[in-house]
Write a structure and sequence with these properties.
With 307 residues, the chain is of the alpha/beta class. The protein is built from twelve helices and seven strands. Strands 2-1-7-6-5-4-3 form a seven-stranded parallel beta sheet. Helix 2 runs parallel beside helix 3 and helix 9 packs across helix 10. The longest helix has 16 residues. This is Dihydrodipicolinate synthase family protein.
């Protein structure tokens, strides 16, 4: 089946973290240098194909492997290519709170509309440390979206803790990546003003139906129009459209929650004719059964006209 181009709705400037914000993969040249021209073209292409904005320097963008100069230039490139800085939500994660705040200040200076922030990830921080960390970065002046990824950070932003961070005035939304869709309802009860953003592609439908107002997304890097159709149907409660499409895409979407997600999404991009390409070490290209599984799922989606 094919999907007509769905124009992005007018972005509400007061809450630019709403909608589909694509965690962008970063094109690299053969020598593993950043290809900024290809990145700029990719950002513009995503927005032209139904996405609302981009999230540079997330884990999908391999920010941990970038130099400070590269990381800053990626943000500037995204803002320029998006044509509207409010559509850009840079990841500002860092080992130290002061460094994370500096990245948030750089994002503000570049003209971005919001930032995405992990909890402290240098150690297993307690609640007081987490609250101080978010308060420090919020002082940079941009709206902060918390990123709950207890699998990788070992710090769990529980619904109770998220409610405290919201009451502190430190966060406006949460990218929920725990995989526990039951939390959506508890977050809404404890912090009704906190925006819920879908944080993992393979729980999109469940969190959309639970009231999510945005999706920090991986697979639109390869298949933006199909993903935009899926997201807009899901948040509208149009199950007749959303459920068959979700089932068709789920064998791909679940790679967003696996260890090899960067390589998987870049491989899918290559197959879809996008600038995916290599990853920087210590990530290596997919091989064997893993590569075959991603390739088969991507080719199946493309053969069904999903793009």
């Amino acid at each position: 089946m094919t999907h007509a181009h769905t124009p992005a709705p007018a972005q509400p400037r007061s809450r630019p973290w709403h909608g589909i914000m694509v965690a962008t993969a970063l094109p690299l040249r053969e020598d593993l240098a950043v290809d900024y021209d290809a990145y700029a073209e990719h950002v513009a292409w995503l927005i032209a194909n139904g996405c609302d904005g981009v999230v540079p320097n997330g884990s999908l963008g391999e920010y941990q492997t970038l130099t400070d100069e590269e990381r800053a230039r990626v943000v500037r490139t995204a803002v320029e290519a998006a044509g509207d800085g409010s559509r850009v939500m840079p990841g500002v994660a860092a080992y130290g709170s002061a460094e994370a705040r500096r990245w948030a200040e750089q994002a503000a200076e570049a003209g971005a509309g919001s930032v995405l922030l992990l909890p402290p990830n240098a150690f297993r921080a307690d609640e007081d440390a987490v609250r101080a960390h978010y308060a420090e970065v919020a002082r940079a002046g941009l709206p902060v979206v918390a990123y709950n990824n207890p699998i990788d950070t070992k710090v769990d932003l529980t619904p109770e803790l998220l409610a405290r961070l919201h009451a502190d005035g430190s966060i406006v939304a949460v990218k929920e990546f725990s995989g526990d869709v039951r939390r959506a309802y508890e977050i809404a009860e404890l912090a009704p003003g906190l925006d819920l953003l879908i944080g993992a592609d393979d729980v999109l439908l469940e969190l959309a139906l639970a009231g999510a107002v945005g999706w920090i997304a991986g697979y639109p890097n390869a298949l933006p129009q199909a993903c935009a159709t899926l997201y807009r149907a899901a948040v509208a409660g149009d199950l007749a459209t959303a459920l068959p499409l979700y089932k068709s895409l789920h064998s791909l979407l679940r790679w967003d929650s696996k260890t090899e997600f960067v390589q998987a999404i870049k491989l899918s991009m290559d197959l879809a004719g996008r600038p995916g390409g290599a990853t920087r070490p210590p990530r290596f290209p997919l091989t064997g059964e893993t590569e075959a599984a991603v390739r088969a799922a991507t080719e199946k989606a493309l053969a069904e006209g999903l793009n």
